[in-house]
């Protein structure tokens, strides 16, 4: 587990949730529901929630629009990370990244191994940074969303988590270990 910085304060972030699915609606989107609940329970703001079909160009379009909005700090994407012909989330997102967060996918698969065994190799969970917005993509099951949020993402979106977190990068004027950002 991480270490808390005693003088840091929690800073709520604006988080958008995108479900990638050809069949789900807002009424049947249990993975999106799970992420929305995780976001609000942690004290962050749900900025927007949307469902898009697994189409590279539609996914790139909506994510590009969100990363162009300075008020969007984090984007959580669920679904489309497998190996079927319709699973194109990594291909849609990675060209948008200024930097890829390599450790996220590796850590997700390591943690998932304890939950689902070798089936975890079929997850192409990816994360990256685009225009100071952090994007996390995870499989489309509620359990995978909960694993990603509780065991990886939540701490990284809390300014009190040390030695580092993503809040320092996405929020202007936050003091960091390497100086202040304006």
Automatic annotation (TrEMBL):
Matches recorded under SMART domains: MoCF_biosynth (SM00852)
GO cellular component annotations of the record: cytosol
Ranges of residues in domain MoaB/Mog: 16-160
One Pfam family of this chain: MoCF_biosynth
GO biological process assignments: Mo-molybdopterin cofactor biosynthetic process
Matches recorded under CDD domains: MogA_MoaB
Pathway noted in the entry: Cofactor biosynthesis; molybdopterin biosynthesis
Alphabetized UniProt keyword annotations: Molybdenum cofactor biosynthesis
Function: May be involved in the biosynthesis of molybdopterin.
Family in the record: Belongs to the MoaB/Mog family.
Protein name in UniProt: Molybdenum cofactor biosynthesis protein B
Gene source species: Pontibacterium sinense
Native organism taxonomy: Bacteria, Pseudomonadati, Pseudomonadota, Gammaproteobacteria, Oceanospirillales
